[in-house]
Amino acid sequence: MKFAQISQFLIRYLRTLSFKRYLHNNSRIRARITFEVDREPGFGEGVWLYYDNWPEEWKAELLEYFHAYAQGTPLPAHDPLPLAPYVPGSSLVDRLEYRCNHLARLTYFAQVAHCLYLDIYQKVPWKLTDWSDDELRYLLSSMVCFRAHRETTSDPLRYVVFISSRQEATENILSDPRIAVRFLQHEPEEGRCLLGTTPEETCQLLSGWIHDYLHHNPGPDQFDCYVFYRNNPLLEDRLRRHPVPPYGNLYVTPLGCGSASSLFMDLMRSVNIPIRKVNNLIVGFDNNEESHSGLLFNWQGAASRYLLHTDDLYTTLYFQDPAPAPKGTDRGVALWNHVWLDPTAFGKAFSYIAAPSAGQGLPPFGRAECDQKVRFWETNDWLVVSAQRVAGTRNGNHDYAVASLKSDYGLSDAEAEACWNAVIESVTSYGDGDLNLGYQRLLDGPDSRHQQWCNRTGKCY
Q1: Same domain, yes or no, for 23 and 133?
Q2: What pTM was computed for the model?
Q3: Are 284 and 290 in contact (CB under 8 A)?
Q4: Count of domains for the chain
């Protein structure tokens, strides 16, 4: 045997020992590695097989993926496409099936092996042990990759993902997670790194990118979300622009907040940050209750943040192009501070739903009455210092604005004054102490901050 072959053999042997020693020494992590092997028909309970009880063949396949990441080589026998064929006119329009169960399992192994590789080789600044048991499930369990499914007891078991998923699993077909990591390390629009020094900073940076570049699908008359989804099912498909007439080439969510939540969750998971997707009930202006997707970050830790509706990051004029003081504050930080809420603020603004409801999908987590949602929009529109709020105060009357906030949205004197002062403080900071100059720099002409944002993102129609 040549020296190079001996060297490769020893490296692989030592790497295998490191992998097995890590799992042996981290029983809490090992106990969260679990694969769904069966499920009752419809949306019944799943049957799970934990790592300690896996067949040796499965453990060997997981190890091969770990070796591929450590060596920087292509993944072994891993191509999630083509999927099982879609039958037009069937009731399965809202889902995609893996073409075989073994392929689904390999897709899951690829995600878990990458998670362990990042932790063993310290490729990110945080550790898996930083997360609670429940949070680790959102990194290590197959429940976030897909779900086992059968309509009746006689049906064969299939693994599926659902468009605009209201399940624990995201809607994306996952392939090589290194694609997602490369996106975070060097996003394609400005070449920025979205991988921060902490999980919080990483979520802030991604929130800012989604705010700038993600677009909601324009509606069924112009955009068949199901056809698009079937033609572009991979996570990597979400990381490039697609033609969306008549608006141009966009980063588009196939079905709004569920798709945006899946994207956020999958990207964060690629760097070992667990994000939990939840359903929140929001009452609309027509008094009808609708279910929308939101997100939870660090939901069992001290730095928890909750997002009522993921579309709020990128679709509403209320929070568009935020510019709070001090000058130059990152847009993602502004959204983190005023659109993502800590648990106390979330409970004050909306309400929690304590008892899970029966039915399909995830039980609702929170509920926002129509007036609560509008109050949240209007109040935080000021605090985040959106472009429309800056423009609205330019010739505005302080007394009228404060009185309106109090009478229309129930703010106290102090809360209403804080809203007004947030905008004035920000504009003044952009003018280096000169209020009028601040308005000019923020709003006026092609070189203004807002116009540059409009030109860069294409979001000012």
Answers
A1: yes
A2: 0.95
A3: yes
A4: 2
